[in-house]
Structure formats: C-alpha cells, structure tokens
Amino acid sequence: MAPRGRKRKAEAAMVATTEKREKLANGGEGVEEATIVIEHCTSRVYGRNAAALSQALRLEAPELPVKVNPAKPRRGSFEVTLLRPDGSSAELWTGIKKGPPRKLKFPEPQEVVEELKKYLS
Q1: Nearest CA-CA partner of 95 in 84, 85, 108
Q2: What is the pLDDT of residues 53-95, one digit of tens each?
Q3: Is 56 helix (H, G, I), strand (E, B) or coil?
Q4: Residues whose CB falls within 8 Å of the CB of residue 112, separated by 6 or more in sequence, listed in order
Q5: Helix count (H) and strand count (E) of the chain?
Q6: β-sheet bridge partners, residue 72
Q7: How far is CA 34 from CA 7, 23, 63, 66, 85, in A?
C-alpha cells in the first residue's frame, strides 16, 4: 500500500498548478472583463472539439472574449473556465476525470452554453 501522505501532496500540487495556470491565463494581472478560457491538449481530436465549442460560445455571448490555450496546456486536458473581473473563476466544464472512452472528455457545446448562462445571470 502507498503511504497516505503522498495523495495529499499530489492534491496540493494540483491546486498550486491550477492557480499558476490561471495567473498565466490572466497575463499575471486581473482581467477588466469576464473571459472564457478553453484549455485543451494539443492533439487533433481535442483541437476540433475546442474549435466547435469556442464558436458556440462566441455566438451565444459575443461580448465575452474566448481564449484558447493562453498557457501551455496539460496533457490530456479539456477544461472550460469563466474568469471574472473580480479575480474569481468558475469552472464550466472539466473533462480531466472523465473517460475512457475519450469522447466523454468533450462536452456538447449546448451543455457549456447553458452552464455559462447560469453564471452570467
């Protein structure tokens, strides 16, 4: 059996990585307006899904900028996050813990749009 302390360290490292990634996505400073960030692995399948999703989000909320991979993405990741002007963030979708099969990692664009509407209203 693995020691219990390792899991906690891994979770702390994951939280620190997420915070670091969000700071890089913000350019190291606060955002003036809400922004949607899509982080996806650079393989072709992930890219196609990210393009379809970003297009759906731009159609639904044209006033919100959509950034795709503002920082180096993690391997196997597919996440959609809403960064608010006050510095907080809301996760609209994460596919990191989903799958196999791989198709479970990708949301239907309408699901993410509905989640975005909840946070904007």
Answers
A1: 108
A2: 889 989 988 899 999 888 888 887 888 999 998 989 999 988 8
A3: helix
A4: 53, 56, 57, 80, 92, 93
A5: 3, 4
A6: none
A7: 34, 14, 9, 10, 5
CA–CA distances in Å: residue 9 to residues 5, 30, 73, 116: 6, 28, 21, 32
Distance of CA 95 to the CA centre of its chain: 9
The angle at the Cα of 92, spanning 90 to 83, to the nearest 5 degrees, equals: 40
Q: Residues 13-45: pLDDT tens digits? A: 555 555 555 555 555 455 578 899 988 887 766
Alpha carbon 48 to its chain's center: 16
Instruction: Report the candidate in 100, 95, 102 with the shortest Cα–Cα distance to residue 77.
Output: 95
